[in-house]
Design brief:
Blueprint: E1 24-26, E2 31-33, H1 49-53, H2 69-80
Length: 81
Amino acid sequence: MALIITDECINCDVCEPECPNSAISQGDEIYVIDPNLCTECVGHYDEPQCQQVCPVDCIPLDPEHQETKEELHKKYLIISA
């Protein structure tokens, strides 16, 4: 699965620089995650870094973008090529 930022986001700016795939960007009102770039940090880290630094815990799994670890790893290989 990709991750999603909920409307509980406080725009604290800590998640964006943590993303190794540049999947996080400022949206109209809150930060957003591009599901085409999000690998949940598979290939880079053991855990999603944005979730680790988020002070309000507003970055859950996105149920609309379900992917296995294998699919996330394939996406990582394509993105990092």
